[in-house]
Design a protein that fits this description.
Blueprint lengths: L30 H6 L4 H17 L6 H26 L7 H18 L4 H26 L3 H24 L13 H8 L2 E4 L2 E4 H19 L1 H11 L1 H6 L4 H27 L10 H11 L12 H19 L7 H24 L2
Antiparallel strand pairs: 1-2
Helix pairs in contact: 2-13, 3-8, 3-9, 3-11, 3-12, 3-13, 4-5, 4-6, 4-11, 5-6, 5-11, 7-11, 8-9, 9-11, 12-13, 12-14
Length: about 350
C-alpha cells in the first residue's frame, strides 16, 4: 500500500521588530532646526538682546513712558515695514516708499487748505493718489520687465522733485499751512494720531494699528490663497504663472499695498504735526527695507514673514531711543543700524544653511 506524504503549508514568520530604516529623506529634523527655519526667530533673539542691553545701559528705558515712546517710534517704522516686507517676499522692493509718505501728506494738506474743504476730502484723495503711485510702479515693472530698483528709483526722484516744486508753487513755502482749525480735523486726528492712557502711560494709537496690521498680514500670508501667491511669485514667477498664479495682479497689488502704507503713515504725520515739510522722507525707504531684511526677508524674494519685520522695527526704535536715553552721541545711530543690518544678514544666512542641512 502506497502512502502519499503531503508537505505542511509554509508559514511566513514576521521579522523581529527592530529600528525603522530611514533613507534620510523622510527623517524629521530636530525641533531646534525646525525653529531655526522660521525667518523671525533670529530677529526675535536679536530684539531681546538689544532690549536687555539697553535696560542695563540706559536705566530710563525701564520707565513706562520711555517704553511707550520706543514703541511709538517703532510703530511709525513698522507700519511701513510690513507692506515693504510683503513686497520683498514677492520678489521686489520699493525705493519710493519714503517720499511717497510725504507725497500723501502733502496732497491731503494742500488740497484741504487751498480749496477750503473738509479734511476728509483731502484724506480720501491722498489715498487714491497713493494707490495710483503703487499701481504705476507695479504696472511699469510688469509691462517693461525692468528691475524694481530702476522703476522705483525713477519714481523716487519724480516724487522728490514734485513734492518740493508743487509745495513752493502752491504755498510759496517749503511747508504746508496749518490745518488744525479746519472741519474734520479732530475726527481724522482721533483715527490717525490720537493718544490713549494705559496704566498712567500715554500710548499712541499707531502702536495699536501697527499690531493690528501685523496680525492681518500674518493671516494673509499663512492662511489665504493670496499669501501663497506672494511666496510663489517671489520664489519663481515663471513657475508660478505656469501653475495658474496671477503674477501681474499679485505684483501690482503688492505695490499698491506699499502705497496704502505710505498713505496711512503720511496721514499720521499730517495730523500729528498739523503741517508737512516737503523735503522730508528721503532715506526713510532704506529704513523700511532694512527693518524687513533684519526681520528675515530676503532681497531675492520667496522667503520671510510678517512677524519678523515687527521685531526688526522694534530693534530700530529701541536703538534710536536707547542711544538718547543712554546719553550717547546720537550721531552713532546710523552706525548702529549698519552693524545691525550686516549682523542680521549674516545671521539669516547662517540660519538658512543650518535649517537646510541634513
Amino acid at each position: 500500500m502506497s502512502m502519499t506524504q503531503q508537505a505542511a503549508p509554509a508559514v511566513d514568520t514576521p521579522p523581529a521588530p527592530g529600528p525603522k530604516q530611514s533613507d534620510g529623506r523622510t527623517r524629521q529634523r530636530p525641533m531646534a532646526l525646525r525653529l531655526l527655519a522660521r525667518p523671525e526667530v533670529g530677529v526675535f533673539l536679536g530684539a531681546v538682546a538689544v532690549l536687555v542691553f539697553f535696560l542695563f545701559a540706559a536705566p530710563p528705558v525701564r520707565d513706562g513712558s520711555s517704553m511707550a515712546n520706543i514703541l511709538y517710534q517703532s510703530s511709525t517704522i513698522g507700519i511701513m515695514a510690513l507692506p515693504v516686507a510683503l513686497l520683498m517676499i514677492g520678489g521686489e522692493f520699493d525705493l519710493s516708499a519714503g517720499v511717497a509718505v510725504v507725497t500723501s501728506a502733502l496732497t491731503a494738506s494742500m488740497l484741504s487748505y487751498q480749496l477750503t474743504m473738509n479734511v476728509w476730502v483731502g484724506v480720501i484723495v491722498a489715498l487714491l493718489v497713493s494707490l495710483a503711485i503703487g499701481a504705476f510702479n507695479g504696472w511699469l515693472l510688469v509691462k517693461t520687465g525692468l528691475p524694481s530698483f530702476l522703476v522705483t528709483l525713477g519714481t523716487f526722484l519724480i516724487l522728490q522733485g514734485v513734492n518740493l516744486a508743487v509745495t513752493k508753487l502752491v504755498t510759496g513755502n517749503v511747508a504746508t499751512d496749518d490745518i488744525s482749525d479746519m472741519d474734520g480735523f479732530t475726527q481724522a486726528q482721533n483715527l490717525f494720531a490720537s493718544t490713549f492712557t494705559v496704566g498712567g502711560v500715554n500710548v499712541k494709537i499707531t502702536v495699536v494699528w501697527w499690531l493690528v496690521f501685523a496680525a492681518l498680514a500674518t493671516w494673509v500670508l499663512l492662511r489665504t490663497k493670496y499669501g501663497n501667491w506672494i511666496f510663489a511669485v517671489g520664489g519663481n514667477k515663471h513657475s508660478a504663472r505656469a501653475v495658474g498664479v496671477p503674477v501681474t495682479f499679485t505684483k501690482i497689488s503688492l505695490f499698491m499695498l506699499v502705497g496704502f502704507g505710505a498713505w496711512f503713515v503720511g496721514m499720521h504725520q499730517l495730523f500729528s504735526f498739523n503741517t508737512v515739510q516737503s523735503g522730508e522722507g528721503v532715506g526713510q525707504e532704506l529704513i523700511y527695507i532694512a527693518a524687513a531684511v533684519i526681520g528675515g526677508c530676503l532681497l531675492t524674494g520667496g522667503y520671510g514673514s510678517a512677524i519678523g519685520p515687527v521685531f526688526g522695527a522694534f530693534m530700530f526704535g529701541m536703538v534710536q531711543q536707547g542711544i538718547v536715553y543712554a546719553g550717547w552721541n546720537p550721531d552713532w545711530f546710523k552706525a548702529f543700524l549698519g552693524v545691525m543690518l550686516l549682523g542680521a544678514v549674516l545671521i539669516n544666512l547662517w540660519v538658512q544653511r543650518t535649517a537646510t542641512r541634513r
